[in-house]
Amino acid sequence: MNKVEILNDSMTAPPRLNGELVFEAPWQSRAFGVTADLVESGCFSWEDFRTRLIETIGAWESTDPGSRPPWDYYTCWVNALEKMLSDAKLLDPLELEGRSGIYARRPHGHDH
Amino acid sequence: MSSETDHHHQVDPRSPEVRTEALEDLLVEKGIVDRSRVDALIERFENDLGPMVGARLVAKAWTNNDFRKRLLTDADEVLTEEQVQGAEIEHIEVKANEPGVHNVVVCTLCSCYPWALLGLPPNWYKSPEYRARVVREPRKVLAEMGLTLEADTEVRVWDSSSETRFLVLPEQPENTDHLDIDHLAQLVTRDSMIGVAKAKTP
């Protein structure tokens, strides 16, 4: 990751009501939106979620740089959400495992 | 940013795309999540919340000393008065830059950020490098981002938490007293309210 370039790029971004790129891929916005909906409907609080997000980010940071995947904020977010859903007994991890497996085996072209 | 995509036919079931799709579908099927509510929330965060909300407050503070004082002492009350959407879920403190003092905001543990005023944070704000380094060597990080501070300027780094989010009130650029709030607000960038840049000059 070329940090300086990313930083410089953000410097030129004017403040605006619309058009700010806050998500880089549709799945990131879905992960965020699902979490926000669960908070709004009272399934858990932002604080509950934040605790788990800190854990997943902390786990990535304390893993040996040679053996961890590249940094990706929303991957941490999804991992935290999975943990949250499991802890709050909203979704059984095995059920999620099963569905993810089914989606992963779909013919190419149906996965995005 | 990598634009590499996975062209293998076998998709990794652990990939965050697949997990996200699977968990959303399961939650919708169970009636826990409503897809149209999710759409509306994303829409709100992508389009309605953004740095213009914070920029207007800063511009108003530049033009109205009484407003500025109240913003610095009780931002929550001011935000309620101004009917800022989403402000009720955050406690916000505003830190003013002044000659000799520069403020910069970080969330060392995750990504806490004043959503109601700035929208969602940019990628670099969430990056491990920024979160770790701006505390350790703020001057160096700011210089790399294009903001070189005088050697005798004190740098105050504010670590956000779920309880308290911070907004930097940048200094008003010189020779802008004749501008109205709308024009002043255009000088107030998101980055200047995080504290990694100064307000623009017209």
General description of the model:
The complex is a heterodimer of chains A (112) and B (202). With 112 residues, chain A is mainly α. Chain A is built from five helices and no strands. The two termini of chain A are 25 Å apart. Residues 1-19 of chain A have low confidence and may be disordered. With 202 residues, chain B is of the alpha/beta class. Chain B folds into two domains: 16-47, no CATH class; 50-194, Nitrile hydratase alpha /Thiocyanate hydrolase gamma (Nitrile Hydratase, Chain A), CATH 3.90.330.10. In chain B, the strands form two sheets. Chain B has a two-stranded parallel ribbon. Chain B has a two-stranded parallel sheet with strand order 2-3. The radius of gyration of chain B is 20 Å and the shape is globular. The relative contact order of chain B is 0.16. Mean pLDDT of chain B is 91; it is low at 1-8. The chains are: A mainly alpha (112), B alpha/beta (202). The interface between A and B is large, with 69 and 65 residues.
Task: Offer a concise description of the structure.
The complex is a heterodimer of chains A (112) and B (202). Chain A is mostly helical. Helices cover 60% and strands 0% of the residues of chain A.
Estimated helix fraction of chain A? 55-70%
Total E-strand runs of chain B: 4
What string gives the helices and strands of chain B in order? HHHHHEEHHHHEEHH
Query: Which strand-content bin applies to the residues of chain B?
Result: 5-15%
Return the string of H and E elements of chain A.
HHHHH
Overall CATH architecture of the largest domain in chain B: Alpha-Beta Complex
Chain oligomer state: heterodimer
